Amino acid sequence: MEHFIFGRLGWDDIAIFDVFRDPTASNIVGSSAGWLAVIGAVIVAALLLIKGWWKPLLFTWLNTTDHKKIGIMYIVVGLVMFARGVAEGVVMRSQYVTSYQGGYLTPDHFSELFSTHGTIMIFFVLMPFLIGFMNLLVPLQIGARDVAFPRLNQISLGFTIVGAMLLMISLVVGQFATGGWTGYPPYTGVAFQPGTGPDYWIWSLGLSGIGTVLTGLNFAVTIYKMRCPGMTFLRMPIFVWTALCTSILLIFALPPLTAVVIMQALDRYLDFHFFTNDLGGNMMNFANLFWMFGHPEVYILILPAFGLYSEFTAIFSGKRIYGYMSLVIATMAIAVLSFTVWLHHFFTMGQSPTINVAFGIATMLIAIPTGVKVYVWIATLWGGRIRMRTPIIYLAGFIVFFAVGGYTGILLANPTVNFAVHNSQFVVAHFHNVLLPGTLFAVLASIYVWFPKFFGFRLDERWSATAAWLFIIGFTFAFMPLYMVGLMGLPRRSPAFDDPSYIPYMIVTMVGALCVLAALCTLIGSFVVSALRRDTLAVPGGDPWDGRTLEWASPAPVPEWNFAFIPTVNSQDAFAKEKAAGTAYEIDCDTYEDVELSPTSWIGLNIIVFGTLFGFAMVFWIWWLAVLSALALLTHSIGLGFVRDKGEIIPASVIERTEKDWIALAAEGPGTERRDEVSPSNRGIAARISEA
Amino acid sequence: MTTSNTNLRRHPGLNLGPSHGKAHEEAESVVFGFWVFLMSDLVTFAMFFAIYATSIQATAGGPGNADIVDVTSIALQTGSLLISSLLFGVATVAMKYHSSKRVVILWLLASLAFGLCFLGLEIRDFIDAAEKGAVPMRSSYLSSYWALVGLHGLHVSVGSLMILVVCVQIAFFGFASDVKTRVLRLGLYWHFLDIIWIGIFSVVFLPGLLS
Amino acid sequence: MNNKDERAHDLRMYFTGFIAAVILTALSFLTAILQPFGSVGIFASLAVLAAVQIAVHFRFFLHIDVSRQKREELQLILFTGLIILIMVAGTVWVLGNLMTRMM
């Protein structure tokens, strides 16, 4: 009976009590992380209840289908998970400082740390960040009122949160996988890991994967079908191009992951033999399928970041992007080539040299369009009036480090070199070297750039710039030494080493990791400080940086209806052109119309609650709960077909008033010169410059 | 050819009334989105096909391809799917040319009946195979066989459930534009499953007769 | 074209597709049962018949053609075909190679 109700969940699974059962260093670290999560959840819940914040949370956030709010929620999820990911990184570096012939964490705990760190950083930090920015920017940049399928968008967010919730639950109950973010069987098979770990991996990736495919679908259709009049493909901002390519990658690269997760689940739950050691199973099928997803995934993570860099490099250089066409072609080329290189993730697993060479060459080919892009950004900076604001600090770090990361990528693409350094810390250094400066810096810089657009006030320049420098310095110290220890022979993922000559490098990386932690605190500090000073930092005009594309052509925060009229464009960088011509703040039409917002929905919340319950129940074999929550999800989804809600109607008078207030604000003065943009005089209206 | 005619031609079964405009634009996005979904799903199927192809020899001494194919049953299953598809087509044409709700629902239910026929035969085959010891736990080959064929069967089951749902919706709401596009999308899905089935009988079942 | 002709045209489309599909399916089955050629020939003809039948289904049931209105769908399908070709052929190549090297 007890087994029926609780499945295989027992008291021993409550990981936060481990510390009382057996207070070793490893358990203290593990349990405190769990307690931190629990206490954090309790504090949040208490605040929600006491301050009455649960009401806006439920009725303006969780049931909304507004792309801007959904985008913000994605980024918040990303930030929360980012904090956990960084903390895990710091713990791992501290393990390496002590791990000469030992280390204070048990090997299993260390394995769990790098597994969750990787899974979190890729699926629940970088992807939510980028999908969040796609949500925020794509509809605004193409002049649309929302995405093509607003309710589906909410569903996607729901599934992403389910995955993140399962990961957080794994801190408190049970244990996460110890097989790395790639989860290679047979080690993650039931024969070697009968526990809950790989099952957490399966359900958090599987369920969040559904959401991600739907995001791809949604944005592909949005960009194909919802562009405003005059917005031909070749007038789209670069970010929209990269979002389109990313969507295509999501649509076609996630299915292999879905397939591999289904097969792994069948192996573990129903005793199938896809990847087992016995009865004909073949783990190479797993490696092959996983990397057919995994390599395009790398470009899913980097392409939108390239788009973001392209956007704000142009803004802060005060000129249009150099080589628009070459950027577009390079983006498309990378998207297609990314499907042809997956094997370079397992060069050493036994196939013939011919195959290795073929995939090695394909890999090196990708360096060409990527190189084009780096030159394009440099050429955009060249001859521009560069303002050294926070985004350009990140950009400077990015260009230098990304080039280094790219070169080491070329080295690794060469099978002969790869045989020497594969599975070493060199690889760890390489992918951190591309993903941190490449994606993370882009996102952090973009938070600075677009934060004022959606919250109505700028972020404090001094705090933000400090955070940027700390990230860059911390990154340098934390990862550059890993190239050295990698070449000296330290394998990745090893909890201990026997060669004392690694120790100095490990101390340097520890310093770097602490510096990154400080950077994270400074980043959070910048939000707090800016929120406190939001009146001096306010930019109601909505264009604090003299932006170039349509998203800047509205007050800040962006009204729920985005645009009073669906704009018509006849060039690239339409808003910059209009500002130069002095027509940006003119009313083009005198009759305002009511706007119907997309209807609210509870399906997202339903997915968060029942999806998480379903995942949890499957992990712990609580079959009745799994069936019930699956039924709840199914009936709600079928029920959606019978709901015919109308969205809230915003009356024309409200739209007219907002629009006219905004135009009046623009008419008040000459606007802010670019050099004064971080002074309180910046109210979000840029001074007119005729040469744009 | 006039524009409205083009629109009629575009998706047989889709006729959203005289004032096309916005409803048609929305339908276009929805249908295109559904195509994207189908293509993503097609890649998932392709992965199961690929795994099947790589595991053909991994029978681990257990039953192989030749031992589980019942060609009569497969022919009947193929026939059921094709007839079901045809009937669905007839239903959409009936809907497009303003037949009564009842007529359309009857055609849809007829289509569903053949879909269920297919499922019944497939389940019988699965039971037969299991009785012969060809269970998925036996070998990697059988795992991939059950997963591939079963995944298609699962899709057909979902489709059958959805046919029932749209029948109820037609009864409730009549031929509102959102119901119409839903029938249309379900039709795409139903015909799409035939295409997968062509792959399955050509890759899985018919080669089994050779060895 | 009036309504009635349109209706007949639409129905004819489905029936044409159906008959073509039945014939092609029958040919596939007969090839496998009667085995008129060697195994390479049989596999080749099965592949060709399947490809033709898939094209028939796309044309007559899913209404994909080369007209302008269908261009986006057609591009999508062809691109999906390319991706599937890369992935499946790649998988068979890599795994087949591994298998021969294991022998």
Key phrases:
heterotrimer, B: 211 residues, mainly alpha, Four Helix Bundle (Hemerythrin (Met), subunit A), 7 helices, disordered N terminus, C: 103 residues, 2 domains, 84% helix
Task: Give the SSE layout.
The complex is a heterotrimer of chains A (692), B (211) and C (103).
Chain A: H1 2-6, H2 18-21, H3 25-50, H4 54-62, H5 67-98, H6 107-141, H7 150-172, H8 197-225, H9 238-270, H10 283-317, H11 324-337, H12 353-381, H13 390-413, H14 415-421, H15 425-455, H16 461-488, H17 503-532, H18 574-581, E1 595-596, H19 603-619, H20 623-640, E2 649-650, H21 652-668
Antiparallel strand pairs in A: 1-2
Helix pairs in contact in A: 5-6, 5-7, 5-17, 6-7, 6-8, 6-10, 6-15, 7-8, 7-19, 8-9, 8-19, 9-10, 9-11, 10-12, 10-15, 11-12, 12-13, 13-15, 13-16, 15-16, 16-17, 19-20
Chain B: H1 3-10, H2 21-54, H3 65-68, H4 71-96, H5 101-131, H6 140-173, H7 177-205
Helix pairs in contact in B: 2-6, 2-7, 4-5, 4-7, 5-6, 6-7
Chain C: H1 3-34, H2 39-61, H3 71-102
Helix pairs in contact in C: 1-2
Structure explained in plain terms:
- The complex is a heterotrimer of chains A (692), B (211) and C (103).
- Chain A has a single domain (53-538), classed as Cytochrome C Oxidase, Chain A, CATH 1.20.210.
- Helix content of chain A is 66%, strand content 1%.
- Chain A is built from 21 helices and 2 strands.
- A two-stranded antiparallel sheet of chain A has the order 1-2.
- Chain A is globular.
- The mean pLDDT of chain A is 93.
- Chain B contains 7 helices and no strands.
- Chain B is an all-alpha fold and 211 residues long.
- Mean pLDDT of chain B is 88; it is low at 1-20.
- Chain B has one domain: Up-down Bundle (Four Helix Bundle (Hemerythrin (Met), subunit A)).
- Chain B is elongated and about 60 Å long.
- Chain C is mainly α and 103 residues long.
- Chain C folds into 2 domains: 1-63; 68-103.
- Chain C has 3 helices and no strands.
- Chain C has helices spanning 3-34, 39-61, 71-102.
- Chain C is flat, with a radius of gyration of 19 Å.
- The model of chain C has no long low-confidence stretch (mean pLDDT 91).
- Classes of the chains: A mainly alpha (692), B mainly alpha (211), C mainly alpha (103).
- Chains in contact: A-B, A-C, B-C.
